[in-house]
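TICKET: design request
STATUS: open
ATTACHED STRUCTURE:
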């Protein structure tokens, strides 16, 4: 029975404060499609996706073309239950991250493949200028997808 169990993939979507600060780039819709396809194409079992996001971003996430697939659901959102959101991501087989350390930790704790957006840092922003090396932020076994690959 376990061999037939669907592969669970968590997708962490964070927008809000990081976008408002103007020092991060949010992944385009094509990033999520490419990341989802990468995992699906490498799996011999059915794949299900669960989107974990903040309550203020749920309507945005629901409206995204990449998330209009039948094998995708949204984690319940409520009073900012961060522990529950982290537990959901950590219990997944693989994780697709967007921005921020919350998704990073969810991916790390999952122990599976983690896909991250390579172009998330605005490297010319004064906050990041001369301070960011992707190799310092993401383990080498993680899979980065850049805008040029979409």
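STATUS: resolved
RESOLUTION: sequence designed for all positions
ATTACHED SEQUENCE:
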């Amino acid at each position: 029975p376990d061999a037939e169990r669907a592969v669970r993939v968590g997708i962490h979507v964070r927008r809000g404060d990081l976008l408002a600060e103007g020092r991060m780039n949010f992944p385009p819709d094509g990033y999520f499609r490419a990341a989802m396809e990468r995992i699906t194409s490498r799996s011999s079992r059915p794949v299900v996706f669960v989107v974990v996001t903040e309550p203020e971003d749920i309507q945005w996430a629901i409206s995204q073309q990449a998330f209009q697939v039948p094998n995708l659901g949204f984690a319940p959102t409520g009073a900012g239950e961060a522990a529950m959101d982290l537990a959901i991501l950590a219990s997944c087989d693989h994780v697709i991250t967007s921005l921020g350390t919350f998704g990073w930790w969810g991916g790390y704790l999952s122990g599976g493949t983690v896909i991250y957006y390579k172009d998330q840092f605005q490297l010319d922003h004064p906050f990041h200028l001369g301070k960011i090396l992707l190799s310092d932020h993401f383990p080498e076994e993680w899979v980065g997808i850049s805008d040029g690959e979409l």
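CLOSING REMARK: The domain at 2-149 is CATH 3.40.50 (Rossmann fold). DSSP finds six helices and six strands in the chain.
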